Protein backbone atom coordinates (compact mmCIF):
# COMPACT_ATOMS: atom_id res chain seq x y z
CA UNK A 1 0.00 0.00 0.00
CA UNK A 2 2.83 2.38 0.81
CA UNK A 3 5.49 1.09 -1.50
CA UNK A 4 7.19 3.77 -3.53
CA UNK A 5 6.47 1.87 -6.75
CA UNK A 6 2.77 2.62 -6.34
CA UNK A 7 3.41 6.34 -6.44
CA UNK A 8 5.60 6.84 -9.44
CA UNK A 9 2.72 7.50 -11.81
CA UNK A 10 2.36 11.14 -10.74
CA UNK A 11 6.02 11.92 -10.31
CA UNK A 12 7.82 14.70 -12.09
CA UNK A 13 10.17 13.48 -14.84
CA UNK A 14 13.14 11.92 -13.11
CA UNK A 15 15.59 14.15 -14.93
CA UNK A 16 14.32 17.10 -12.92
CA UNK A 17 13.92 15.53 -9.53
CA UNK A 18 15.83 12.47 -8.58
CA UNK A 19 19.11 14.21 -8.17
CA UNK A 20 21.04 14.33 -4.93
CA UNK A 21 21.12 18.03 -4.42
CA UNK A 22 18.56 19.89 -6.50
CA UNK A 23 19.17 23.28 -4.97
CA UNK A 24 22.90 23.32 -5.45
CA UNK A 25 22.60 21.82 -8.89
CA UNK A 26 19.58 23.76 -10.04
CA UNK A 27 21.39 25.52 -12.88
CA UNK A 28 22.74 22.19 -14.10
CA UNK A 29 19.28 20.67 -13.78
CA UNK A 30 17.88 23.44 -15.91
CA UNK A 31 20.50 22.87 -18.55
CA UNK A 32 20.02 19.11 -18.43
CA UNK A 33 16.31 19.61 -19.06
CA UNK A 34 16.99 21.78 -22.06
CA UNK A 35 20.18 20.50 -23.56
CA UNK A 36 19.95 22.92 -26.47
CA UNK A 37 20.35 25.86 -24.12
CA UNK A 38 23.79 27.00 -23.12
CA UNK A 39 24.30 27.82 -19.45
CA UNK A 40 24.86 31.53 -19.07
CA UNK A 41 24.64 32.70 -15.48
CA UNK A 42 22.38 30.95 -13.00
CA UNK A 43 20.21 34.09 -12.89
CA UNK A 44 19.58 34.01 -16.59
CA UNK A 45 19.00 30.27 -16.78
CA UNK A 46 15.39 29.68 -17.64
CA UNK A 47 13.53 28.58 -14.51
CA UNK A 48 10.19 29.37 -16.12
CA UNK A 49 10.70 26.50 -18.56
CA UNK A 50 11.65 24.25 -15.66
CA UNK A 51 8.37 25.10 -14.00
CA UNK A 52 6.40 24.73 -17.21
CA UNK A 53 7.76 21.23 -17.44
CA UNK A 54 6.45 20.58 -13.94
CA UNK A 55 3.02 21.91 -14.86
CA UNK A 56 2.95 19.62 -17.89
CA UNK A 57 3.68 16.65 -15.66
CA UNK A 58 0.56 17.39 -13.61
CA UNK A 59 -1.73 17.20 -16.57
CA UNK A 60 -0.08 14.52 -18.68
CA UNK A 61 -2.05 11.38 -19.49
CA UNK A 62 -0.73 9.29 -16.61
CA UNK A 63 -1.86 5.92 -15.30
CA UNK A 64 -4.65 6.08 -12.74
CA UNK A 65 -3.56 5.63 -9.13
CA UNK A 66 -5.16 3.20 -6.77
CA UNK A 67 -7.92 4.65 -4.60
CA UNK A 68 -6.85 6.05 -1.23
CA UNK A 69 -7.13 3.63 1.67
CA UNK A 70 -8.37 4.57 5.14
CA UNK A 71 -5.60 4.72 7.75
CA UNK A 72 -6.02 1.63 9.90
CA UNK A 73 -2.64 1.11 11.48
CA UNK A 74 -0.94 4.37 12.42
CA UNK A 75 2.10 2.57 13.82
CA UNK A 76 2.85 1.05 10.46
CA UNK A 77 2.85 4.49 8.82
CA UNK A 78 4.84 6.14 11.65
CA UNK A 79 7.48 3.42 11.57
CA UNK A 80 7.81 3.64 7.79
CA UNK A 81 9.01 7.27 7.68
CA UNK A 82 11.41 9.54 9.52
CA UNK A 83 9.81 12.89 8.72
CA UNK A 84 6.27 14.21 8.70
CA UNK A 85 5.53 17.35 6.73
CA UNK A 86 2.31 18.97 7.88
CA UNK A 87 0.24 21.53 6.10
CA UNK A 88 -1.08 23.99 8.71
CA UNK A 89 -4.58 25.30 8.01
CA UNK A 90 -7.08 22.44 8.16
CA UNK A 91 -4.48 20.09 9.65
CA UNK A 92 -3.00 21.82 12.72
CA UNK A 93 -5.50 24.64 13.11
CA UNK A 94 -8.65 26.02 11.57
CA UNK A 95 -8.55 29.80 11.46
CA UNK A 96 -7.42 30.68 14.97
CA UNK A 97 -8.49 27.45 16.68
CA UNK A 98 -6.30 24.45 17.27
CA UNK A 99 -7.73 21.18 15.94
CA UNK A 100 -8.49 18.63 18.68
CA UNK A 101 -5.65 16.40 19.81
CA UNK A 102 -2.89 18.15 17.82
CA UNK A 103 -0.49 18.90 20.74
CA UNK A 104 -0.61 15.31 22.02
CA UNK A 105 -0.11 13.92 18.50
CA UNK A 106 2.91 16.12 17.80
CA UNK A 107 4.37 15.24 21.23
CA UNK A 108 3.93 11.51 20.50
CA UNK A 109 5.64 11.81 17.10
CA UNK A 110 8.54 13.76 18.60
CA UNK A 111 8.89 11.19 21.38
CA UNK A 112 9.26 8.54 18.69
CA UNK A 113 12.11 10.50 17.15
CA UNK A 114 10.23 11.82 14.11
CA UNK A 115 11.28 15.06 12.46
CA UNK A 116 8.34 17.45 12.08
CA UNK A 117 8.13 20.15 9.44
CA UNK A 118 5.30 22.60 8.82
CA UNK A 119 4.74 23.87 5.30
CA UNK A 120 2.23 26.50 4.28
CA UNK A 121 1.39 28.22 1.01
CA UNK A 122 0.28 31.31 2.89
CA UNK A 123 2.83 34.01 2.06
CA UNK A 124 1.34 36.79 4.17
CA UNK A 125 3.51 35.85 7.15
CA UNK A 126 7.22 35.20 7.56
CA UNK A 127 8.56 32.15 9.40
CA UNK A 128 9.05 34.28 12.50
CA UNK A 129 5.44 35.50 12.34
CA UNK A 130 4.23 31.91 11.93
CA UNK A 131 6.32 30.93 14.94
CA UNK A 132 4.28 33.41 16.98
CA UNK A 133 1.04 31.84 15.77
CA UNK A 134 2.22 28.39 16.88
CA UNK A 135 3.23 29.87 20.22
CA UNK A 136 -0.14 31.58 20.66
CA UNK A 137 -1.83 28.24 20.09
CA UNK A 138 0.38 26.64 22.74
CA UNK A 139 2.53 24.62 20.32
CA UNK A 140 6.25 24.43 20.69
CA UNK A 141 7.57 24.72 17.15
CA UNK A 142 10.88 26.32 16.18
CA UNK A 143 11.34 28.74 13.31
CA UNK A 144 13.58 26.20 11.55
CA UNK A 145 10.67 23.76 11.37
CA UNK A 146 8.43 26.22 9.52
CA UNK A 147 8.47 26.70 5.74
CA UNK A 148 6.10 29.30 4.34
CA UNK A 149 5.92 30.20 0.66
CA UNK A 150 7.17 33.69 1.58
CA UNK A 151 10.41 32.04 2.72
CA UNK A 152 10.42 29.80 -0.37
CA UNK A 153 10.44 32.87 -2.67
CA UNK A 154 13.52 34.28 -0.91
CA UNK A 155 15.18 30.84 -0.76
CA UNK A 156 14.61 30.36 -4.47
CA UNK A 157 16.26 33.68 -5.31
CA UNK A 158 19.21 32.70 -3.12
CA UNK A 159 19.45 29.30 -4.80
CA UNK A 160 19.91 30.91 -8.23
CA UNK A 161 22.36 33.53 -6.95
CA UNK A 162 19.99 36.35 -7.80
CA UNK A 163 22.26 39.37 -8.20
CA UNK A 164 22.39 41.63 -5.14
CA UNK A 165 22.38 44.71 -7.36
CA UNK A 166 18.97 43.75 -8.74
CA UNK A 167 15.73 44.53 -6.93
CA UNK A 168 12.60 42.51 -6.32
CA UNK A 169 9.17 44.02 -6.94
CA UNK A 170 6.65 42.52 -4.52
CA UNK A 171 2.94 42.12 -5.04
CA UNK A 172 1.95 40.66 -1.70
CA UNK A 173 1.97 41.26 2.01
CA UNK A 174 4.46 41.70 4.81
CA UNK A 175 5.71 38.09 5.04
CA UNK A 176 7.45 38.23 1.66
CA UNK A 177 9.17 41.52 2.50
CA UNK A 178 10.45 40.18 5.81
CA UNK A 179 11.92 37.06 4.22
CA UNK A 180 13.53 39.03 1.36
CA UNK A 181 15.07 41.37 3.91
CA UNK A 182 16.45 38.45 5.94
CA UNK A 183 17.94 36.98 2.76
CA UNK A 184 19.61 40.32 1.99
CA UNK A 185 17.62 41.30 -1.10
CA UNK A 186 16.52 44.82 -1.94
CA UNK A 187 12.83 45.15 -2.69
CA UNK A 188 10.10 47.61 -3.49
CA UNK A 189 6.31 47.43 -3.63
CA UNK A 190 4.36 45.40 -1.11
CA UNK A 191 2.22 47.31 1.39
CA UNK A 192 3.72 50.68 0.35
CA UNK A 193 1.82 50.48 -2.95
CA UNK A 194 -1.55 49.96 -1.31
CA UNK A 195 -2.72 53.54 -1.69
CA UNK A 196 -1.15 54.20 -5.08
CA UNK A 197 -3.48 55.02 -7.91
CA UNK A 198 -3.09 55.79 -11.57
CA UNK A 199 -4.33 58.96 -13.14
CA UNK A 200 -5.29 58.40 -16.74
CA UNK A 201 -4.73 61.79 -18.32
CA UNK A 202 -3.62 62.12 -21.96
CA UNK A 203 -0.03 60.97 -22.49
CA UNK A 204 0.29 59.51 -18.98
CA UNK A 205 3.12 57.01 -18.72
CA UNK A 206 4.05 55.03 -15.64
CA UNK A 207 7.78 54.92 -14.92
CA UNK A 208 9.25 51.75 -13.47
CA UNK A 209 12.57 50.77 -11.94
CA UNK A 210 14.76 49.15 -14.57
CA UNK A 211 16.88 47.42 -11.94
CA UNK A 212 13.99 45.14 -10.93
CA UNK A 213 15.13 41.62 -11.82
CA UNK A 214 12.26 39.64 -10.30
CA UNK A 215 8.58 40.17 -9.57
CA UNK A 216 7.28 38.05 -6.69
CA UNK A 217 3.50 37.65 -6.53
CA UNK A 218 1.68 36.29 -3.49
CA UNK A 219 -1.72 36.67 -1.87
CA UNK A 220 -2.48 40.38 -1.54
CA UNK A 221 -5.66 41.71 0.08
CA UNK A 222 -4.78 45.14 -1.27
CA UNK A 223 -4.20 44.19 -4.88
CA UNK A 224 -4.82 47.10 -7.25
CA UNK A 225 -4.35 48.22 -10.83
CA UNK A 226 -1.18 50.19 -10.00
CA UNK A 227 0.50 46.96 -8.84
CA UNK A 228 -0.66 45.07 -11.92
CA UNK A 229 0.76 47.69 -14.26
CA UNK A 230 4.03 48.08 -12.32
CA UNK A 231 4.65 44.33 -12.17
CA UNK A 232 3.71 43.97 -15.82
CA UNK A 233 6.15 46.69 -16.91
CA UNK A 234 9.00 45.06 -14.96
CA UNK A 235 8.37 41.62 -16.43
CA UNK A 236 7.75 42.79 -19.97
CA UNK A 237 10.40 45.48 -20.25
CA UNK A 238 13.30 44.53 -17.95
CA UNK A 239 15.48 41.97 -19.77
CA UNK A 240 15.55 38.61 -17.95
CA UNK A 241 13.10 39.71 -15.26
CA UNK A 242 11.75 36.66 -13.39
CA UNK A 243 8.08 36.11 -12.59
CA UNK A 244 7.79 34.14 -9.33
CA UNK A 245 4.54 33.06 -7.69
CA UNK A 246 4.40 31.99 -4.05
CA UNK A 247 1.40 29.81 -4.94
CA UNK A 248 -1.51 29.57 -7.34
CA UNK A 249 -4.19 28.59 -4.83
CA UNK A 250 -7.63 29.22 -6.30
CA UNK A 251 -9.21 29.94 -2.94
CA UNK A 252 -8.25 30.80 0.60
CA UNK A 253 -10.15 30.96 3.89
CA UNK A 254 -10.18 34.52 5.15
CA UNK A 255 -13.34 33.80 7.12
CA UNK A 256 -15.06 30.53 7.88
CA UNK A 257 -18.27 31.71 6.17
CA UNK A 258 -17.11 31.14 2.59
CA UNK A 259 -14.13 30.56 0.32
CA UNK A 260 -12.30 33.68 -0.86
CA UNK A 261 -10.26 34.30 -4.01
CA UNK A 262 -6.75 33.00 -3.33
CA UNK A 263 -3.22 33.90 -4.42
CA UNK A 264 -3.92 32.33 -7.82
CA UNK A 265 -6.15 35.28 -8.65
CA UNK A 266 -3.29 37.80 -8.28
CA UNK A 267 -0.89 35.53 -10.16
CA UNK A 268 -3.49 35.04 -12.89
CA UNK A 269 -3.81 38.79 -13.41
CA UNK A 270 -0.06 39.19 -13.96
CA UNK A 271 0.06 36.09 -16.10
CA UNK A 272 -2.78 37.49 -18.19
CA UNK A 273 -1.11 40.82 -18.83
CA UNK A 274 2.41 39.48 -19.42
CA UNK A 275 1.43 36.29 -21.26
CA UNK A 276 4.04 34.56 -19.12
CA UNK A 277 3.69 31.60 -16.80
CA UNK A 278 5.26 32.07 -13.36
CA UNK A 279 7.73 29.91 -11.57
CA UNK A 280 5.78 28.61 -8.57
CA UNK A 281 7.77 28.04 -5.38
CA UNK A 282 4.92 26.93 -3.09
CA UNK A 283 2.92 23.70 -3.16
CA UNK A 284 2.42 21.69 -5.38
CA UNK A 285 5.75 22.71 -6.96
CA UNK A 286 8.54 20.54 -5.56
CA UNK A 287 10.85 23.45 -4.79
CA UNK A 288 10.19 23.39 -1.04
CA UNK A 289 10.34 19.59 -0.95
CA UNK A 290 13.70 19.64 -2.70
CA UNK A 291 14.89 22.37 -0.33
CA UNK A 292 13.81 20.42 2.76
CA UNK A 293 15.25 17.17 1.49
CA UNK A 294 18.54 18.92 0.83
CA UNK A 295 18.62 20.91 4.08
CA UNK A 296 17.90 17.97 6.35
CA UNK A 297 19.47 15.28 4.19
CA UNK A 298 16.21 13.32 4.08
CA UNK A 299 15.35 10.75 1.46
CA UNK A 300 11.95 11.63 0.02
CA UNK A 301 10.72 8.07 0.47
CA UNK A 302 11.21 8.66 4.21
CA UNK A 303 8.78 11.58 4.23
CA UNK A 304 5.02 11.52 4.73
CA UNK A 305 3.18 14.62 3.53
CA UNK A 306 0.03 15.28 5.57
CA UNK A 307 -2.50 17.77 4.24
CA UNK A 308 -6.15 18.61 3.80
CA UNK A 309 -6.03 19.66 0.16
CA UNK A 310 -5.71 17.36 -2.83
CA UNK A 311 -4.49 19.78 -5.52
CA UNK A 312 -1.78 21.34 -3.36
CA UNK A 313 -0.76 19.18 -0.38
CA UNK A 314 -1.28 15.71 -1.81
CA UNK A 315 0.02 16.65 -5.23
CA UNK A 316 3.03 18.27 -3.53
CA UNK A 317 3.78 15.00 -1.73
CA UNK A 318 3.28 12.92 -4.84
CA UNK A 319 5.32 15.27 -7.03
CA UNK A 320 8.11 14.96 -4.47
CA UNK A 321 7.93 11.15 -4.36
CA UNK A 322 6.71 11.03 -0.72
CA UNK A 323 4.02 9.07 1.07
CA UNK A 324 0.79 11.02 1.36
CA UNK A 325 -1.94 11.19 3.99
CA UNK A 326 -5.09 13.25 3.48
CA UNK A 327 -6.90 14.47 6.59
CA UNK A 328 -10.59 15.31 6.38
CA UNK A 329 -10.35 18.05 9.05
CA UNK A 330 -10.02 20.82 6.44
CA UNK A 331 -11.39 21.57 2.99
CA UNK A 332 -11.72 18.05 1.51
CA UNK A 333 -14.69 15.86 2.29
CA UNK A 334 -14.78 12.09 1.91
CA UNK A 335 -17.28 12.42 -0.94
CA UNK A 336 -14.96 14.84 -2.76
CA UNK A 337 -12.05 12.43 -2.32
CA UNK A 338 -14.12 9.54 -3.63
CA UNK A 339 -15.81 11.47 -6.43
CA UNK A 340 -15.19 10.07 -9.94
CA UNK A 341 -14.17 13.63 -10.90
CA UNK A 342 -11.21 13.53 -8.53
CA UNK A 343 -8.04 12.06 -9.99
CA UNK A 344 -5.72 12.86 -7.06
CA UNK A 345 -5.60 9.92 -4.69
CA UNK A 346 -3.37 9.99 -1.60
CA UNK A 347 -1.94 6.75 -0.23
CA UNK A 348 -4.07 7.04 2.90
CA UNK A 349 -6.76 9.19 4.45
CA UNK A 350 -8.10 9.74 7.95
CA UNK A 351 -10.31 12.22 9.79
CA UNK A 352 -7.64 14.17 11.70
CA UNK A 353 -4.04 13.74 12.79
CA UNK A 354 -5.00 12.79 16.35
CA UNK A 355 -6.29 9.54 14.80
CA UNK A 356 -2.60 8.58 15.09
CA UNK A 357 -3.24 8.25 18.82
CA UNK A 358 -6.60 6.48 18.64
CA UNK A 359 -5.52 4.05 15.94
CA UNK A 360 -2.33 3.35 17.85
CA UNK A 361 -4.29 2.60 21.03
CA UNK A 362 -6.69 0.34 19.12
CA UNK A 363 -3.78 -1.55 17.60
CA UNK A 364 -2.22 -2.34 21.04
MG1 LIG B 1 -4.61 23.37 4.37
Automatic annotation (TrEMBL):
Source taxon at top rank: Eukaryota
Enzyme Commission number: 3.1.3.18
Sorted UniProt keywords: Acetylation, Chloroplast, Hydrolase, Phosphoprotein, Photorespiration, Plastid, Transit peptide
SUPFAM superfamilies referenced in this protein's UniProt entry, alphabetically: HAD-like
Annotated localization: Plastid, Chloroplast
Keyword field contains Chloroplast: yes
Predominant cellular place of this UniProt entry's protein: plastid
GO molecular function: phosphoglycolate phosphatase activity
Coiled-coil ranges from the UniProt annotation: none
Keyword Transit peptide attributed: yes
Top-level EC class as recorded in UniProt: hydrolase
The family this protein is said to belong to: Belongs to the HAD-like hydrolase superfamily. CbbY/CbbZ/Gph/YieH family.
Functional note: Photorespiratory enzyme that dephosphorylates the 2-phosphoglycolate produced by the RuBisCO oxygenation reaction.
Protein name: phosphoglycolate phosphatase
Organism: Protea cynaroides
